[in-house]
Structures are given as structure tokens and as C-alpha cells.
Write a structure and sequence with these properties.
alpha+beta; 51% strand; Lipocalin; eight-stranded antiparallel barrel
């Protein structure tokens, strides 16, 4: 190999990780479903947010999702008002985020149609409090898109969300959270 070939090979190797790390999958339409209905509640305490962002970096397995707390839609306007003003204080803590990684990245074949089960773990920040979370996740690859689905439980008190005794029998101490979305490769 002559000097120019060596230099070209060195430059190619040096830039290879940058090119690979740019392989990202993205959506602005991730859906987050929240259910904090207690067994004694006469009505459902649930909401959906359909405008979350979700990014997955293919090579490193890093992933990140973010939602605006005010984007949750409840069946009843009063529930939505209480959720934003009294519980999650969305004007003070406007976003909820999850930053983490795919634990067993080798299980997910990003360029091969199929369904891949793995675990994701990272930090969930809600109501200004960050806690470690680990949960099973399903990645479904089909026709050049990836659909991600995961479920986990967040204990409200762990995130500094206090529940007044007046509604303690209606509101569960923990919230079931489902997140999902269909991501496309960023160009």
C-alpha cells in the first residue's frame, strides 16, 4: 500500500463510526398512554399523548423519548386540569423524558423484518425527578420502519407526585405507562 492508499484507508476508518452513528430512527408521533385508575375508582383516570418524540441510534442502541406533559388528553376536562395543575404541575415541569439504551442490541436486526424482544433501561424524568427504569420492549421491523412498544409502572410518590387524601381511593399509587411509536430512518 502506498502512502495515499494508507491515508485514504485511515481517513475512511476514522470517519466510519461517524457515518454509522448517524443511522438514527425517529418519530414525532410516539404515543404514551397513562392509566392511574385505582381498583376503587368509579371512573377511569387515563390519558393519551400522541405527540411524543422518539429517537433510536442504531449503532449504539441509545434511545430517547420526550413528551410535553400538557399534551395528555383526558376524557374529562376537569381531570386534565387537575393532572396539569395539581399533580404533574406541567407549567413548572413541562416535559417528561426517557434517556437510555437497548440492553441487548444484538437482538434487534434493524435491517431485517421481524419482531425482536429485548430490554431497554435508562432514566425516566417526570415531575422534575429522575429515576432508573428497566423494562421489556418489543421492536418490530417491517418494510423499512420500526415499531417500538414498551410498558412499565411508575410509582407516583417516587416522582414527588402527591395525592390528596380526598382522592386517594380513586387514584392509584402507581401509573401504568405504555409507550409506542413507528419510527423511520432519518436521512
Amino acid at each position: 500500500m502506498n502512502t495515499i492508499q494508507k491515508l485514504t484507508a485511515l481517513l475512511l476508518i476514522a470517519t466510519l463510526p461517524l457515518g454509522l452513528s448517524a443511522q438514527k430512527w425517529f418519530t414525532r408521533d410516539a404515543k404514551v398512554y397513562f392509566d392511574a385508575t385505582s381498583a376503587n375508582s368509579p371512573e377511569r383516570i387515563e390519558a393519551t399523548n400522541k405527540s411524543g418524540t422518539f429517537v433510536v441510534e442504531q449503532v449504539s442502541g441509545r434511545l430517547e423519548t420526550a413528551i410535553l406533559v400538557k399534551g395528555f388528553q383526558f376524557e374529562k376536562a376537569l381531570m386534565q386540569e387537575h393532572f396539569n395543575e395539581n399533580y404533574l404541575e406541567s407549567s413548572k415541569f413541562p416535559k417528561a423524558t426517557f434517556k437510555g439504551k437497548i440492553d441487548d442490541l444484538a437482538k434487534v436486526k434493524f435491517d431485517q423484518d421481524g419482531t425482536y424482544k429485548t430490554t431497554v433501561s435508562g432514566d425516566l424524568t417526570l415531575h422534575g425527578v429522575t429515576k432508573a427504569v428497566s423494562t421489556p420492549a418489543t421492536f418490530t421491523v417491517k418494510s423499512g420502519k420500526i415499531t417500538i412498544a414498551a410498558n412499565f409502572v411508575a410509582v407516583l410518590a417516587d416522582y414527588g407526585v402527591s395525592v390528596p387524601s380526598l382522592v386517594a381511593d380513586k387514584l392509584a399509587k402507581d401509573a401504568k405507562i405504555t409507550i409506542g411509536g413507528t419510527l423511520e430512518k432519518m436521512k
